[in-house]
Write a structure and sequence with these properties.
Strands 12-11-8-13-16-17-18-19 form an 8-stranded mixed sheet, with helices on both faces. The chain folds into 2 domains: about 10-180, Rossmann fold, CATH 3.40.50.1950; about 190-405, CoaB-like (Rossmann fold), CATH 3.40.50. The protein is an alpha/beta fold and about 400 residues long. Helix content is about 35%, strand content about 25%. It binds cytidine-5'-monophosphate.
Length: about 400
């Protein structure tokens, strides 16, 4: 799902060496479904060409207040957008925005809009640490606008320090975060993703057909709703966000230890991973070669039930920890689900029928029943995994709110 579908954005570009990075941001914003109008300062044009922004933007770029047929282009654009993001926001732009000064298209739009504003600061390190700049940023933040801090790194002229424009992903997250429902801001959720692999020898393993797609959709949904997420994953999530910590694991034993330790300071666990129920008791140290004598017998032993163990842990630590399990069933889906939620002791169980072609492991869509320990049931008909993720996260939010209400 595109995270900025239907959102109208003015992308301001200031005159700094990082202006070229605004091209990548423009592309990502458009890819996420936003309608983007680039607004460049005259100084930005010393660093980047208008043609690039014309080619990639959704509307004609704006540079001057006086070339549009409308006599008041700044108010027209300022009123029409949902968000203004400026990257790079130079010391000059921050100063103008803090004091309300406006002498060009970008500064005038910033002062004439009541849309959300995200400013991704970038400048030389001496400028970034100057008290005037610091005070301007304080003023801007106090008024409720977002400033994305620059990173430490290489700057223009070979200097190194704080002042480099934040990564595109971080700016994109700040924009998405402004537009999304942030009902999980301040919550920490642990999600397990993918199928575990149980080693037979250094090159072979016992695995399963889980693709991890549903787990990744849940991670994305949680991030968009403002949660801090720890993903305990057997696959590379290919997602980056300052709110996401990824712990890569392979086996059920590794997943168990990472999950139990991450849950200690979390509000919820969503146990989406397909965990192998059995592992090889003694994996071979060296690769087993063809013709090296009798075929080895693979003796299996039972893996710990991670979900059940976290449920037991959470009863010790806090009454308020929410546990969500998944169950893949091939028959009597609802009845088996009801039995499993009791057996596992979790608060919510998401049950899906993997016998069907459309909802098999690895498919793009899913159809689930969300069962709650209190007996209530919600059915989500066949939908893309991201929509199913939204339903699962809604169930989590409902449960969190009801616990807070009870207290
Ligand atoms: O018992 P079953 O494997 O169907 O339960 C599925 C749920 O339990 C999933 O949430 C899965 O992640 C979790 N599970 C687990 N540890 C295991 C096996 C499954 O946490 N060893």
């Amino acid at each position: 799902m595109k995270r900025l579908e239907g959102v109208s954005i003015a992308l301001g570009v200031g005159g700094g060496i990082a202006a070229y990075k605004a091209v990548e941001l423009l592309r990502r914003l458009v890819d996420e479904g936003a309608h983007v109008t680039p607004v460049l300062t005259k100084n930005a044009l010393n660093f980047v060409g208008l043609t690039t922004f014309r080619a990639l933007g959704s509307s004609e770029p704006v540079v001057s207040l006086f070339e549009d047929s409308s006599p008041i282009p700044h108010t027209k654009l300022g009123q029409g957008v949902d968000l203004v993001v400026v990257a790079p926001a130079t010391a000059d732009i921050l100063s103008k925005f803090a004091t309300g000064a406006c002498d060009d298209a970008l500064s005038t739009i910033l002062v004439s809009t009541d849309a959300k504003v995200v400013l991704a600061a970038a400048m030389h390190k001496e400028m970034w640490s100057h008290p005037a700049v610091m005070e301007n940023i304080e003023t801007i933040r106090r008024r409720g606008f977002t400033v994305v801090d620059p990173e430490h790194g290489r700057l223009a002229g070979g200097d190194v320090g704080f002042g480099r424009l934040a990564a595109t992903e971080v700016i994109l997250d700040a924009v998405v975060g402004q537009m999304a429902t942030r009902d999980l801001a301040g919550y920490h959720v642990v999600v397990t993703v993918g199928g575990t692999r149980e080693a037979i020898d250094p090159v072979r393993y016992i695995g399963n057909r889980s693709s991890g797609r549903q787990g990744l959709a849940i991670v994305s949904e949680l991030l968009d709703r403002g949660a801090h997420v720890t993903a305990i994953s057997t696959i590379d999530p290919a997602l980056s966000s300052s709110y996401l910590e990824v712990v890569r694991v392979e086996s059920a034993i590794e997943m168990e230890s990472a999950t139990r330790s991450a849950c200690k300071d979390a509000n919820a666990l969503i146990m989406c991973a397909a965990v192998a129920d059995y592992r090889v008791e003694s994996p071979l140290v060296n690769k087993f070669k063809r013709g090296s004598g009798n075929l080895p017998e693979i003796k299996l032993v039972e893996n710990p039930d991670i979900l059940a163990n976290v449920v037991a842990d959470s009863k010790m630590y806090s009454q308020n920890f929410i546990t969500i399990g998944f169950a893949a069933e091939t028959e009597n889906v609802e009845a088996n689900g009801r039995a499993k939620i009791v057996k596992k002791g979790c608060d919510i169980l998401v049950v899906n029928d993997v016998s069907r072609e459309e909802t098999r492991f690895g498919s793009a869509d899913n159809e689930v029943i969300i069962l709650s320990a209190d007996g209530s049931l919600k059915y989500i008909p066949l939908a893309p995994k991201r929509e199913v993720a939204a339903g699962v996260v809604d169930a989590l939010v409902e449960r969190l709110l009801s616990i807070e209400f009870e207290q």
